[in-house]
Structure formats: C-alpha cells, structure tokens
Amino acid sequence: MDFAGKCVVITGGATGIGFALAKRLGVTGAKLILCEPREAKLAEAVAALAALGIDARAFVGDVTDAASVEALADFAWAAHGRADAIIANAGVGGPRASVIDCDPAAARALFEVNFWGAWNCIRSFGRRFQADGLPAGIYATASENALFNAVRVKGGAYVASKHAVLGLMDMLRNEVSSAIEVGVIIPGWVKSDMTRHAEPAMEADAFAARIVPQMEAGQFYLVSHPYNVVRMEERWAEAYAAFADYAPREEGDEAMDVQMVIESGAAVKRRD
Predict the structure, then answer these.
(1) Which residues contact 137 (CB under 8 A, 6 or more apart)?
(2) Of residues 139, 158, 227, 240, which has the active-site annotation?
(3) Annotation says 139 is catalytic
(4) What predicted TM-score, i.e. pTM, was given to this entire model?
(5) Is 125 within 8 Å of 9 (Cβ atoms)?
C-alpha cells in the first residue's frame, strides 16, 4: 500500500509498537486514528504526533466490545470518508502460570483482547472494505510466539493466543478480494509497556522502520528479528523427523494431496 493521504486506524496505538507504527506511518503522510481505553495515554500520543506534524485523532474504545469497534469504524468513516487500513495491534501479556495451573478466567480475558479483539476489528472494518471494493489493508499483530514458543514455560495463554492470530490471518488472506492487503506482524522482543525493562529488546522505532516498508510492499509475514529463523528451523526439524519416521510420503500421495485441496475449497479460491 501507499499510505500517503490514507486513513490508518491503529488499536493499542498510544504506546509501544502501535505508537511506533503510528509515527512511521505518519511520516509517510498517513492520517491516523489511535484507539485504546486509556484516554490520558491517547491524549499524550496524539499531542506527540501533532508535534511531529502528523495528523492524528484519538478514539477511546475497547476492542473486546464489538459495539465499541463498530463505533471506531463509524468514527473513521465520519472523520475521513473511510478508513483505508486497520492495524489490530492491541494486546496484553496476561497470566504467567503453567497451562495446568493457569486461571481459566484470566486466560479467557487475555484471549478477549489478543484474539477476539483482533477478530472484532477484522469483522467491522473488513465488511466495509469488502462492500466498497476499494483498496484497503487489514493487519494484525501476532508475535514470534505465533511461529514457535519463544516463551517456553508459564505463558500458555499468551502463546496460544498468538498462534490463533496467525491462523486467523492466514485464513483471511485466502478469503478476501485482491483489493484488500492482509498482513500479520511478527514482533520479536520489542520494547513496549510490557517489556520496558528488557534492555536487549529492539527499540520500537527501529522495529517500525523494518515493518512499514514490508507493509508497503504487500508482504503477508511482516518480520523483524533474524534469529527467529533458527527457532523455526528447530521446531520444523522435529516435526519433519516425526513424519519421516512414522508417516513418510508414499506413492500416490500427490494425487491424494490435490484431491484434499479441492475438497477443502482452497483450489476454487478466486481473488477478483
């Protein structure tokens, strides 16, 4: 996408990754609408962006509330005629407990923000994008934890939510028209409110400087930390070894693969 002059809505946009993306997109000439529940944080962010000459507005909203997200879309359409892109970035760290011992209510609360919050944004904005048929973008922030478990223990709810976001976005890109760009943001360790004491973490502005050009180039995987490849190879090496030992490819597999794809409906996808 060319973001110059476009309206970009960013949830969780007042701090951390969301705010860094806002600054970087604002420099390209995008008009921004930042959404999150903390009114004071939003006011600070909008003022900081205005000082940089960036057009930004605030909307106090809650991504876990579908009606609030629909109101956010209404706000964007009223302010700028339409939104051109939504970045479903809002997220929380959630409970640090083992899978067995984690409080189910706390885990569900995390999923309400990290997963259902993203889905609410996709539904509200995606329906409008599909209806007008104009170029648009839908992006969601997952994590390196969507590709492998960077958090090895006591983070099951968080890791599972980010795996779920990746799966959701991968499905979405097969379903929308070619006018809609779809991308999943894969941060590694980036400084934010959740990781503000993590000295080795990447600065959020440096992260945004890597991500936005990939968005402009129409990439699906929007990536930042090179070492992730090593961790991904470790995970898939284990999986490939299991298949090699217990479910190796056999003669006739290719024909069966094609039939399964046809039956699943993937082969009849048409991007208009």
Answers:
(1) 1, 8, 84, 85, 86, 180, 181, 182, 183, 215
(2) 158
(3) no
(4) 0.92
(5) yes
